[in-house]
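FIELD: query
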Amino acid sequence: MRKTTYLFISIILFGACATRKGTISNRQARQNNNRVKEQNSASVAGYVPLTSVQYINRYKAIAIKEMNLYGIPASITIAQGLFESGSGNAELARVANNHFGIKCTYDWKGRSYYRDDDNRNDCFRVYDKAEDSFRDHSLFLKRKNYARLYDLDITDYKGWAKGLKKAGYATNPDYPSILIGIIEKYHLDQYDAQPEGAAKKQDTAATQAGTDIIAAPTDSTIKTIPPDKLYTVKPGDTLYNISKRFGLTVDDLKAMNNLADNNIKVGQKLVVVKQ
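FIELD: result
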């Protein structure tokens, strides 16, 4: 019994080491992800799709609270959350409560979830609830490589957006313009530097009409993928028949394109070759 226990612990420790080095197998990744889905089954089962405006209304108070505690513009936090989580609808947000695409680091001691990103089976952090993701985002941005951002004015969202890219938060060369575009579209700068969440003249984002949803990050960077690795959806296509055509599984397609469900539309471009 004792030998079995030691063997089990060794396997766990080996898995943890493999995780940090990015060498986890596909089978280990699937088993781990299924376990996370079971552990977070309540939030997964209670998931309701959000529009961008609904996402802002749900999380703006948390972003303002984090700004007052840590000095990060609320507009930046909300814009990053919208973009990285696809308005809360991407798989990482739904299953792992990870709204900012924060990956595991050597010092991460929490649970992990695996997705193909820069590498095969990249390790992402898992949180018990969305609020924990927002707090970890604030703590993550207190790392020394982001220190110069805090010399900027709290209302300088453009400087923050450019500084995040320069400090290495994202590899997408368009990341600053994407964040700035989201902030200006929804007037998120109205939430910056407010004492304890006090509202300005008008909560523009909360009243803005429309049911649009911010696309998940993969969609926004699709133009950087070589054309021969993309497929344009045609009338009658489904994820299933596209997956068979290119020797993939439906789950592969969803993971490669950061799709929250099986819904696709004519004209949509999908990555169909594994990186």
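FIELD: remark
The longest strand covers residues 112-115.
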